[in-house]
């Protein structure tokens, strides 16, 4: 293809430099990743500034911060570089028995404790060199997936998610009540009034005092007494096992954790919710990642 004389042919190598610079936010680290000298990386940044007519990275204290234009370009540039790398890389199915890799999953404590053992057993059997690293999910920030720090994540997603996140439904879940064996609530039918009169454990990562259980009860003109607030399902179940407090937790997330305890259906309606598997598009075509996504789905045994 012949470009008109008035059109400048873009230097596509600058895309790679821009992607690394925006990821690292540091000229020296970007140069190291690309095996360039710091001066060569600085020259590339200067050319990028001329090409885009934007400073892209500006000094803030001892570091550099991206401009609004740089933030706008970041995901687009990353996708272009990944697509180019995929085109130029031969498609080879890995030998899972010989694959060595650490895969990071960001999940709730309940998910890791309930589904983790089966995932580890399956992974060890099919790919003994693949190590699963579970990290706790403390918020819904997807930046770690975008940066490649997190390989997979589980959670409840909004009806519409951005292009930087892929999602696949794993299972539907609902809240149930759980108390220690022999608890007074385990001896007769649970009514909304009996449930409301008990002392409860609230569950909130942010330490909030109100949640979906309280919303459902308030709609009936009822209110529960929350004696303790914890940040995760497994902690709530552990406290309920050792006290007279009631924990209301997702059923599928806590199946193993509730062994030996008395579980009951809540005496009022609460909305069911879908737990999904999330990942960044950069891993969409990665063969090992595809295999891992499949075994997570099979382990969770999707039921609609």
Write out key terms for the chains shown:
304 residues, five-stranded mixed β-sheet, disordered N terminus, single chain, 10 helices, Arc Repressor Mutant, subunit A
What would you note in describing this structure?
The chain is of the alpha/beta class and 304 residues long. It has three domains: 76 residues, Arc Repressor Mutant, subunit A (Orthogonal Bundle), CATH 1.10.10.10; 98 residues, D-Maltodextrin-Binding Protein, domain 2, CATH 3.40.190; 97 residues, D-Maltodextrin-Binding Protein, domain 2. It is 38% helix and 22% strand. The protein is built from ten helices and twelve strands. It has a five-stranded mixed β-sheet, with helices on one face. The chain has a five-stranded mixed β-sheet with strand order 9-8-10-7-11, with helices on one face. It has a two-stranded antiparallel sheet with strand order 1-2. Strand 8, helix 8 and strand 9 form a beta-alpha-beta unit. Helix 1 crosses helix 3, helix 1 crosses helix 4 and helix 5 crosses helix 10. The protein is elongated and about 80 Å long. The protein starts with 12 loop residues before the first helix and ends with a helix. The N terminus is likely disordered.
